[in-house]
Write a structure and sequence with these properties.
The chain is of the alpha/beta class. It has helices at residues 2-26, 31-53, 56-78, 105-120, 140-150, 167-174, 193-202, 219-236, and strands at residues 90-94, 125-129, 158-161, 184-189, 207-212.
């Protein structure tokens, strides 16, 4: 039992150190998410201190919870592996928040994956999803369209869904562009496509997923966002 507690203590400390470092990194990226990670870190530190001083089994339970969360993130990531995506009738490309009307590296990676797919599957129609969000003055869909046209994709094969502000709206609004009985591929970052596919299923699509790479340093934050997104999906769909 003592050995198990020692192992749990070490794992818990490693998580706390990692989250401390990641909180510092997030302060260079997003104040909003940095404050969320700071709150998470504060709760973790309090639990560890309480567990070590009052009830050591608390640290073991906490460690199991942290490991379960990591396994869940791994499951979400693995479910983003591409399956049966060739020869789709429609490719639904999900947007990502712009930064001062400019696309981020995450969105660029999604569009580069879209370009690769479009080259290999030239008959597929592309539905670009994403409205105007935050302080931006141009829609994500329009920025995505301009980028793909500049890379050589025919604008005639693309449709712009430029009214949505989140993934649920992305999927619901793009239904008017798609024959529901067609083969549909939803394309997004590999950490995001699993939730997107579940939203598509709830909307009535028989959907396949196509994942793009994402900036590795942002993955812990994105997995946190995905778990919160699943909660939102369960409430509003």
């Amino acid at each position: 039992m003592k050995r198990l507690q020692t192992i749990c203590n070490m794992i818990a400390f490693l998580y706390v150190i990692f989250h401390l470092c990641y909180t510092g990194y997030m302060f260079t990226q997003s104040l909003f998410y940095a404050m969320i990670w700071l709150a998470i870190l504060a709760v973790e530190v309090l639990i560890v201190i309480f567990g070590l001083k009052k009830a050591k089994f608390v640290v073991c339970i906490f460690t199991l919870f942290l490991l379960a969360q990591s396994c869940l993130s791994g499951f979400i990531y693995v479910k983003g592996i591409d399956l049966h995506t060739k020869n789709a009738d429609y490719v639904v490309v999900l947007g990502y928040a712009l930064d001062d009307n400019q696309m981020t590296e995450t969105l660029k990676m999604r569009l580069d994956r879209t370009y690769e797919y479009a080259v290999d599957n030239s008959n597929a129609k592309i539905v670009l999803c994403g409205g105007v969000t935050g302080s931006n003055t141009v829609s994500e869909a329009k920025v995505m369209y301009d980028y793909l046209v500049a890379k050589g994709i025919d604008g005639a094969c693309m449709r712009l869904e430029d009214k949505s502000t989140d993934t649920i709206e992305n999927i619901q609004n793009c239904k008017s562009y798609i024959d529901i009985n067609s083969k549909v591929v939803v394309l997004s970052s590999n950490y995001h496509v699993y939730r997107a596919s579940k939203i598509c299923e709830k909307a009535g699509f028989d959907v396949h997923t196509l994942g793009s790479k994402a900036p590795i340093l942002l993955l812990p934050n994105q997995f946190l966002h995905e778990k919160l997104g699943f909660i939102k999906m369960m409430i509003f769909m």
